[in-house]
């Protein structure tokens, strides 16, 4: 699946997008965050306060318990500050 | 009429308001809100708005459809800018048209409250970086709990 990162999540990880191939036991948004956090200090830093991180699956807001099976694009970003 | 726009360009609020009313004779009320970039007592040189292209437009549309479901609107406009925005420039516009003012006022507040918490935009402040300002020259704006509270009342 394709992963997109925005704002300080993007800056901390050091890239705006990448292709991910998580192992089959990674079934939810929250588990994906946990798996990513183990990939390096940059990911661990981006996701250090995991509960504050927002996610979107195929451009729709998703909770951390949402399943990722069949999802083509996942996005991670901080709470939004537009308007 | 539903107008949704995510753009880097400055918009003309007066033109947008007039377009929404559109010379119609059934519109009794138009409420317009424009959010501007403040200079924070001279310390802020610009706001930089990052957005999630595609999802930003989709979220604005989803919020607009929900407002249309809740109130008898005759039209609405939502415009949100991205990129570098200077103090004094508009950032966001919400305009609603209805037969009576109550629906137009309520829907405009609803649209703004949801846009702030649900539309994927992120503000970064550019400051003058003077020694008197201990904050970094560029800093992401933190989300405010009051924005979540404003959304929760709906």
From TrEMBL, chain A:
NCBIfam families the UniProt entry points to: moaD
Protein name: Molybdopterin converting factor subunit 1
InterPro entries to which the protein is assigned, alphabetical: Beta-grasp_dom_sf, Mopterin_synth/thiamin_S_b, ThiS/MoaD-like
Gene: moaD
Source species taxonomy: Bacteria, Pseudomonadati, Pseudomonadota, Alphaproteobacteria, Hyphomicrobiales
UniProtKB/TrEMBL annotation, chain B:
Pathway the protein contributes to: Cofactor biosynthesis; molybdopterin biosynthesis
Entry's Gene Ontology BP terms: Mo-molybdopterin cofactor biosynthetic process
Keywords for the protein's UniProt record, in alphabetical order: Molybdenum cofactor biosynthesis
Reactions catalysed, as given in the entry: 2 [molybdopterin-synthase sulfur-carrier protein]-C-terminal-Gly-aminoethanethioate + cyclic pyranopterin phosphate + H2O = molybdopterin + 2 [molybdopterin-synthase sulfur-carrier protein]-C-terminal Gly-Gly + 2 H(+)
Annotated EC: 2.8.1.12
Coiled coil, from the record: none
Compositional bias segments (type: Basic and acidic residues): 144-154
GO terms for MF: molybdopterin synthase activity
Organism domain of life: Bacteria
Chain intervals for the UniProt region annotation (Disordered): 125-154
SUPFAM superfamilies registered for this protein in UniProt: Molybdopterin synthase subunit MoaE (SSF54690)
UniProt xrefs under InterPro entries: MoaE_sf, Mopterin_biosynth_MoaE
Assembly mode: Heterotetramer of 2 MoaD subunits and 2 MoaE subunits. Also stable as homodimer. The enzyme changes between these two forms during catalysis.
UniProt similarity note: Belongs to the MoaE family.
Task performed by this protein: Converts molybdopterin precursor Z into molybdopterin. This requires the incorporation of two sulfur atoms into precursor Z to generate a dithiolene group. The sulfur is provided by MoaD.
Protein name as annotated: Molybdopterin synthase catalytic subunit
